[in-house]
């Protein structure tokens, strides 16, 4: 399980697990519970590269980032270590 400290969003960190280049589990600490659970459910068993592509650059309101964008950054940060 990996832990990523977020920046600029309501969630303080994201915990996630990757196996065979697929997202297996995502847990947001803080933030909007319904959105976090929905996002976690949608990402289950998704290829890590596809998840990064879909989530990168999403903004939350006037913020320059979002919880999905932060997750894309987290996934990108571990991608080089698992390939």
UniProtKB/TrEMBL annotation:
Domain TSCPD: 3-77
Keywords: DNA synthesis, Nucleotide-binding
Pfam families, alphabetized: TSCPD
GO BP field: DNA biosynthetic process
A single GO molecular function term of this UniProt record: ribonucleoside-diphosphate reductase activity, thioredoxin disulfide as acceptor
Sequence similarity: Belongs to the ribonucleoside diphosphate reductase class-2 family.
Protein name listed in UniProt: ribonucleoside-diphosphate reductase
Organism: Clostridium bornimense
